[in-house]
Amino acid sequence: MTDAFEIINHATQIIAVSPNEAARLCSIGRTTLYAALSTGDLKSIKIGTRRLIALDALRDWLKRNETRAGE
Question: Strand pairing partners for 9?
């Protein structure tokens, strides 16, 4: 059985995720995420046919889209 420490350690090693996983992590729809990719607002990496989004790019995109309460 895997303990919680091993799971957390493995998760901290992940540096990029698929667009579907990125949408799930942000609790947004895939359409919204793909719109950000198509406008270039959210940067991605393409290796062969595989598209990945670096977690740092995802965090930066979320920070740029922050709004204050009431906006």
Answer: none
| SS3 readout for 4-53 | HHHHHHHHHHCCEECHHHHHHHHCCCHHHHHHHHHHCCCCCEEECCEEEE
Average pLDDT of the segment spanning 32-39:
96
Average pLDDT over residues 47-56: 95
pTM of the prediction?
0.76
In the structure, what pLDDT confidence band is assigned to residue 1 with cuts at 50, 70 and 90?
Answer: very low
Among 38, 36, 45, 31, CA closest to 64:
36
Residue 46 token pair: 């393409």
